[in-house]
């Protein structure tokens, strides 16, 4: 994998706006979108099995342990429509599209 190709793989929950998924895809990130029929357990298993970072608005995933899920980015939207990433850890230099 070249240094210009992002190495993070994402699993986009069905409750996340598609605009975010398209933004990540346009930056050449490997993304997979969860189907509406998937249960929380199935989503966690996919994340763990495929080493994908789950991006979700579902606070239930914030309680998952490392044994249950690979990694989670829990999104919150402020009153002005801006995306806020909680507990970003190593995401200090990661920028999303200007308008997500």
Describe this protein's structure.
There is one protein chain. Residues 88-100 have low confidence and may be disordered. Strands 2-1-3-4-5 form a five-stranded mixed beta sheet, with helices on both faces. Helix content is 20%, strand content 23%. The protein is globular and about 30 Å long. The chain has one domain (9-86). It has helices spanning 18-26, 40-50, and strands spanning 9-12, 30-33, 53-56, 71-77, 83-86. The chain has 100 residues and is an alpha/beta fold. It has two helices and five strands. Residues 9-77 form the DUF5615 domain. Pfam families: DUF5615 (PF18480). This is DUF5615 domain-containing protein.
Radius of gyration: 13 Å
Strand content: 15-25%
Please state the overall shape, judged from the principal axes of the Cα atoms.
Answer: globular
Number of domains: 1
Domain DUF5615: 9-77
InterPro entries: DUF5615 (IPR041049)
Organism: Candidatus Woesebacteria bacterium GW2011_GWB1_38_5b
Protein name: DUF5615 domain-containing protein
Write a short abstract of this structure:
It comes from Candidatus Woesebacteria bacterium GW2011_GWB1_38_5b. The chain contains two helices and five strands, in the order βαβαβββ.
List the helices and strands and how they pair.
Blueprint: E1 9-12, H1 18-26, E2 30-33, H2 40-50, E3 53-56, E4 71-77, E5 83-86
Parallel strand pairs: 1-2, 1-3, 3-4
Antiparallel strand pairs: 4-5
